[in-house]
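Retro notes - structure team

What went well: the batch runner handled both jobs without manual restarts.
What didn't: labels got mixed up in the shared folder, which is why I'm recording both outputs here explicitly, each with its sequence directly above its tokens.

Job 1
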Amino acid sequence: MSALMVAAAHARRQVALARRAAREVARLWARVDRAAIARSWSVSVPAAVQVLGSAQATAAAASGSYLDVLLGEYGQDPAPAGLVVASTFAGVASDGRDLPGLLYQPAITALTVLKGGGSEARAMAAGRFALDAIVRTQVADAGRAADGVALAARPQLAGYVRMVVGGTCARCLILAGRFYRWNDGFQRHPRCDCRHIPASEDVAGDLRTDPKAAFEAMPAAEQERVFGQAGAEAIRDGADMARVVNARRGMQVIGERTFTTEAAGRRPRLMPEQIYADARDRADAIRLLRLHRYIT
């Protein structure tokens, strides 16, 4: 199995995990009393937190074995400087918020639709969509953050290559195949399925995805769905894809709030992205990851 196949299989498992968690939480939302949305959903939030937290931990727990298999494909020693602590990535949102507060948002969304004159059915659908986005995003974020920590704990890996998974959007497609240093942040939007493939610089070229080739492999209808009719036509006419699409518009950066007090014990815990920014070198990053209990 090639490194790309290993990474793709890992990505598929993580996406499937996020979808299962979203379906399970959606069943809780379906039981909400439409005459008392806020109160009814508040009763179900603890169960939703348990489902999401469990999925986050499961996503994070896969990182170590994934990196070990990947390094085996590279013919390198998989021995890490520390082991990922999966529970550290559970029970808190990727921006530092607590999960109960985040998971209450769908009720606010539904009530806002009702207040604006929307129907009950539309309000419930809006709440469900918001809930689906929250769950999928947070499970994916936990897995990606753990992958990043596992990468940082393996100095034999220099960085990662961005890989798109399944159908993608224009913002992500133009970033496909780029190599980033191990401590560079991974930008994405809500519900983004893109993954990073940990790699050594000397093998990164084997993993690259050419955005132009990916565009040309799409049927015209798919090109226009992703880039818009005018954008797709411009690219077909030779326009630079990166100029057609502003890759940063609407993207979110992990760690905008760089501390979290959730599951942190007596003191705030640095987010992994802030650790990478603060660390003097790789050894210092590993020390900080251990200090903040991301690895043991």
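Job 2
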Amino acid sequence: MFCVIQKIQKKKPDPYGTHKEINVTETTFGFVGEEPKTSYGYTYSNERFERPVLDAYKISIHHSYRENGKVKKKQWVICTMGYYDFIDSWYGDHYIRGSLEVKLNEMGIDEDTFHEMINAKLGPLVEQIELEFQQTEEYRIKKKHDAILETHRKVQKAFEDLYGEDTYRYSYDVFGELRNPEYLEKVMADKKTRDEYTRRSYEESFKRNYNNYSGDGGSYSTTSTGNYNENEKKMLHEIYRMASKKFHPDACGDNGGKMKFLTKLKEQWGL
């Protein structure tokens, strides 16, 4: 039993070559009572690369055997793939799973053996096609587009981790060009306000609780941890993190009293 790759010719070229350009899109909308905002997305151009190679390959499994002194053959066609299909997909995408299982039962082999036979025969052909494609202008543009979009995703994530979800596309386009400096200034100002609010909140909370605490055997008014919801606990975590940096003995130069008190607060907050 062995795999056969038969080269045939298609009648029509593949119409789905790589798009030649990435274009910036602009979408403007706004809710009632709010100033409209413009978001910057992207789309591919309608113009595509031509794919002139008409070669296609029929993949089948053959079995030769003798019966009553005569040589007989059986053949199971797996699928047919065009030249460019090897660039865009795997042969497993081109056959029907249920149909393959029926054929495997007829052939009397398991799926691992089937794939070993296919890959042994198909591997050199796929390698040859990929090397040929890498010499084309379409390949160069495809790699360029992939790099642009990968950079876009990374930069967008880093920006939104800092300034908040769904903020990048109102400031920058897919190429990283600043489109709306006024909105960017607003985003940065909003973050500064949030940071200042958090800083003031933990300082006021610290002072308020510190006034209820006396160092040596004094009293400390506690609040039940059950009174804090999840959002409040997240804020307390942030308060503790920022305060621990400020009141660490190495930072404030005391004997560790402030940090001990902060640790006690953390315990009583239930963090």
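One thing worth noting from job 2: Residues 153 and 174 are 9 Å apart (CA to CA).
We'll revisit the folder naming next retro.
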